[in-house]
Model the fold of this input.
Amino acid sequence: MNASAINSKASNREVHRHLSQLGSTAGDTVSPKDEYRSFCEREASIPLFSRDWWLDAAVGPQGWDVVVVKKGNAIIASMPYVRRTRYTMRVVTQPALTPILGPWLHELEGKPATRLSTENELMQLLIDQLPPFDHFSQTWHSTRRNWQPFYWNGFEQTTYYTYILPDLSDSEKLWAGLDSKVRRNIMKADKEHRLQVRHDLPLDVLLKLNRKTFKRQGLLPPYTDEFVRRLDAACLERNRRKLLVAVDPHGVPLSGEYLVWDDECAYNLISGTNPTFRHTGANSFCLWEMIRQAASVTHQYNFCGSMIRSVESYLRGFGGEHVPYSRISKTPSPLLSLRQGFLSHIGAK
Done:
């Protein structure tokens, strides 16, 4: 047996020893949440939507919490969550405009069986620390595929789908991957309607376009303008957002896109189009430019795809990979189990 294999086994034994010692450090007065804040400053692999500053902006510093597992003094697993009370019911969930939350695990070493065993133990320790709840619902990152420990604890899983462009480095390849209809719409917007994409328009322009899109569907946005402004201010402070608006030759805003990103992936968070000008191809024109812009800041593009058929068919035309991801839920409360309309109301908050 070579030295690396011995070290790998020793490392995994060390992990297993420390898993049973969570929170046992004598005299430790630092809360898991404060430790997690410091950890987010050091650990680049924490996804954007799980970072402390994002959650602060979304629900306030007191509106979220986190459970962690430590190896010695180092966090090796974490799961932030939002806890709300609705009509006396305790709900553990995630904020609006936060498409992904759920567990983060440190990269594990060793044989597949050893890694899976450790992963299961880490998840169980996260579950054990969750606060009491009447309803739990979180949407996980597409790379987090093992939810079996949650199944063993009575949770359920629903599969959703998004589209992801896994490599943004080759713009010619991305263009070739577009559906022919999407390419025609982009060229029509450029050549026939002479649209331009602006980077300097205020957030309120996009918010108005976004409301028009919801109004066309007979809906209201599931978030307030002030909520979006808080997130935007936090993203601007850290240079983690781009806002693009397609305008006609007279400067009239036709369509807009709002992008956020971390070191690995960009996420299409908000979009909006004036329905009067859908025939111009402004939405495809603006989204294509946003994809090109994303290539300058990160590696992948997640369309945060919808399960609505018409939206899915539109996003499919941009050539992304069809990727499943999971919503994990549990409703111990018999009352809530019978009130699905109430749960839908909670999910929109």
